[in-house]
Design brief:
It contains seven helices and seven strands; from the N terminus they run ααααβββββββααα. The protein is of the alpha+beta class and about 290 residues long. Among the domains are: about 55 residues, no CATH class; about 120 residues, Immunoglobulin-like (Sandwich), CATH 2.60.40. The strands form two sheets. Strands 4-3-6-7 form a four-stranded antiparallel β-sheet, with no helix packed on it. Strands 1-2-5 form a three-stranded antiparallel β-sheet, covered by helices on one side. α2 crosses α3. About 15% of the residues are buried.
Length: about 290
C-alpha cells in the first residue's frame, strides 16, 4: 500500500505539472497572484524551483522572499497627470505623473526606480529613477508613454524597486483609453505652452509702470478746511476799503472832461489842459530866433 501511495503522489504531481504546458501563462498567473511584487524573471525562478507548480511557487515565495515589515514603504497619493481621465488618440505620446509618499519608517535606499512590472507596456522605458525620500516626504514621478495604434482600453502596473530589484510599496495602475479624437495630448500641449509663457517660480512680480502722480485706487483725497488752506502770497498786504481806492491813470469818470493827454486836443476854451506842456509852434518863430 505504501508503494501505491507513493505512485499516486507522483502521478498527482505529474498531472499538476501537466495542467498547462505554457510557461508564460504560469508566469503571468504567479505574477498576478503575488500582486506584481515580482518581475517575470523572478516568477520563472520560483516556478522552476517548484517544478512549475503554481501553488508550490506561491508558498515558496512567501516562505523565503516575502517583503519584511520594516522595509521601505510607498503610498500613491494622487494621479496628477495633466488631463487625467481623458482619452488619448492612437500613436500619440503623453506623460503620466504620480505623486507618491514615503510611508515607511526609514529612508528609501539610494538609486530607487519606478519599474514596469506587468500588463500593457506603454512606456518608452522599463524604469525611471526616483530620488531617495525621507519618511513622510512626497515627490512627483513622471513617465513618458505612447498610446498603441489600435483603439481600446489598456492597463499596466508599475512599482517602486530598490537597486537590488526588491519591489516595495503599492502597485501603481495605468488605465488608458485609446480613441480617435482623444484630447489628452492636446491638453498637455496647451499646458506646456502656458508654462513657457509664465515666469519661473520664485521670480518677483514687477508692477507695471504707471503715473507717479496718480493716486492709488480707492484713495480718497480730502481738501483742507478753509482755515487750513494755504493763504495767497498777497494776503499779507493791508486791504484798502473800496471808497478809498484811487483810480488808475487810465481810468476816468464819465463826468470829467476828456484829458488833453489822452486826446492830444486843446481844451474846449482853447486853453491847454492842466498839466499838459505844449511846445511852441515853429511857424511863430523866425530863423534868427531859432539860431539864437
Amino acid at each position: 500500500m505504501d508503494i501505491d501511495s507513493d505512485l499516486d503522489l507522483n502521478l498527482l504531481q505529474q498531472f499538476s505539472c501537466l495542467g498547462t504546458t505554457d510557461r508564460d501563462v504560469l508566469v503571468c498567473q504567479l505574477q498576478k497572484v503575488l500582486g506584481y511584487q515580482l518581475n517575470p524573471a523572478g516568477c520563472a525562478f520560483f516556478l522552476d524551483m517548484n517544478n512549475w507548480n503554481l501553488q508550490a511557487a506561491v508558498c515558496s515565495y512567501f516562505d523565503f522572499e516575502a517583503p519584511k515589515e520594516n522595509g521601505p514603504g510607498m503610498t500613491l497619493i494622487k494621479d496628477v497627470t495633466i488631463g487625467e481621465g481623458e482619452a488619448v488618440p492612437p500613436n500619440t505620446r503623453f506623460i503620466k505623473t504620480w505623486r507618491i509618499q514615503n510611508t515607511g519608517e526609514s529612508d528609501w535606499p539610494p538609486m530607487c526606480t519606478l519599474r514596469f512590472v506587468g500588463g500593457d507596456h506603454l512606456g518608452h522605458t522599463d524604469s525611471v529613477g526616483v530620488e531617495s525620500l525621507r519618511p513622510g516626504d512626497t515627490t512627483d514621478v513622471s513617465v513618458e508613454m505612447a498610446s498603441p495604434g489600435k483603439p481600446g482600453i489598456y492597463q499596466g502596473q508599475w512599482r517602486m524597486a530598490s537597486l537590488g530589484g526588491q519591489v516595495f510599496g503599492e502597485v501603481i495602475w495605468v488605465i488608458l483609453t485609446v480613441a480617435e479624437g482623444g484630447l489628452l495630448a492636446v491638453t498637455q500641449q496647451m499646458e506646456a505652452f502656458h508654462q513657457l509663457g509664465s515666469p519661473p517660480r520664485g521670480t518677483p512680480t514687477v508692477p507695471p509702470a504707471g503715473n507717479p502722480f496718480a493716486t492709488s485706487p480707492g484713495t480718497v483725497t480730502e481738501l483742507a478746511p478753509p482755515c487750513e488752506r494755504p493763504s495767497s502770497p498777497f494776503s499779507g498786504f493791508p486791504a484798502t476799503p473800496p471808497h478809498q481806492r484811487q483810480p488808475f491813470p487810465h481810468q476816468q469818470h464819465a463826468s470829467e472832461p476828456p484829458s488833453p493827454m489822452r486826446t492830444g486836443l486843446p481844451h474846449e476854451h482853447g486853453a491847454v489842459g492842466d498839466g499838459v506842456i505844449r511846445c511852441p509852434s515853429a511857424l511863430n518863430h523866425s530863423p534868427d530866433d531859432m539860431m539864437s
